[in-house]
Amino acid sequence: MSKYFRLSISLALATTLSMAQTQLTVYNHGEALVKEQFSRQVQKGVSEIEIERVAETLNPSSVKLSSDQDIQVLEQNYRYDLVDQNKLLKKYLEAEVTVVLQNDNKMSGTLLSYDNTTLVLKSRTGTDIIQRQFVGTIKCPTPTERLYVRPTLAWTLNNAKTGKVNFDLSYLTGGISWKAEYVAIINQDDSELDLSSWINLNNQSGKDYQEAKLKLVAGDLHRAQPEQVVDARREKAQMRAMMYRPVVEERQFFEYHLYDISFPVTVRNREEKQIQWLNSTLVKAQKRYVYQGTRDKFTNIPIKIMFTNDKETGTGVALPGGIVRLFKKDTDGALELIGEDNLKHTSRDDLVTLEVGEAFDVKGKREVLDRRSKSERYNEQDIRITLANRKDEAVEIEVIQTVGYRNWRVQNASHRFTKVDASHVKFTVAVPANKEVMLTYTSRIDLK
Questions:
Q1: Does the residue 383 lie in any domain?
Q2: Per the confidence metrics, is the pTM higher than 0.70?
Q3: Is there a domain that residue 249 lies in?
Q4: How high is the pLDDT of residue 2?
Q5: pLDDT band at 229 (very low <50, low <70, confident <90, very high)
Q6: Total domain count, the chain
Q7: Domain encompassing residue 127
Q8: Is residue 221 in some structural domain?
Q9: Strands in 270-321 per DSSP E
Q10: What is the pLDDT of residue 49?
């Protein structure tokens, strides 16, 4: 048996694992917690074990290896200096190599140096500079040290006795992210949304996760803490018993929201995967024209779609942040995109406001007609807002204005208003079809 074949067998035996189900918890800031269980035959005393195929983007300081048996971890190493052609050549500087050119000629000698374009060999007849574009094969001696082709974790252990040991491994890794993608179809009178959602999972961590138990956490974490590793066999039994539950189950977790995928998910490296979690849900909605402008020229007024995320009129579940794409059917029945907006993490009973775009035929402008002030007593402004409706149907426009930060009041208003907060008021103005309406008021700030 050749030494190369013996080496291959020993490496295969060294990396053979009895793996339980991988658990993968992905956070929405682009990091994931990987949890795996494996068993190894460990000799009594001090010995070393390795595990390959870990994530290329793992955080070494987050690695935790534990066992319920009497074993001590003395040292841990993350070996990520993976071999490639130039790194291999570096190991053979001043060693004898044979270069086979593309025309099958051979040149042997001591490797003195190399770069991306040339090799320098010292042979019996002199020094040869070989252009690498003409090189077919470089034959090197048998390596005297282990060459790593995949990221590898290695531990030095001290075991009380020889035998099989069960290990729990967990670590944080970057390169994995998730987000929600929403599709909202608005009905003809803009009073209802057909809302559905997919979870978009992107894996760029350098590792495949086969048949993983997948959890997704929504929320802004200051620092992600590893969870306790649970028994995979017990979890599989629970999954079989609950095989008819929803595809994604949402629940509160600490101060965040956790979305638990109800079936094993294979997440391959450099793969983007979509998982449906929110089935088509009818949501009561309202369309609003909201003018908050300050310019003295006509500008198009933004259109907003609003709904309350409660059980009666909304989804009744917490919605993770993501892009909402809004569609509406044309007269021929085809869906057309009418706008999109970013949805922030939304709790149950929250008001959701989505900005669709700007109305082409509904405009507004704001003018300051007069300013008055009396030193150390008050400042006043006379405001006129012109709302123009070029549509063939009447519209209602919400006008939100900043009026001050303290000791303010609105006087002589042409329309009724409500106080929004400490510095804003809201007017609701009906504008008939193909008409303009003037909204006027005086804002006064008392300086004492």
A1: yes
A2: yes
A3: no
A4: 39
A5: very low
A6: 2
A7: 85-139
A8: no
A9: 271-284, 286-291, 299-308
A10: 93
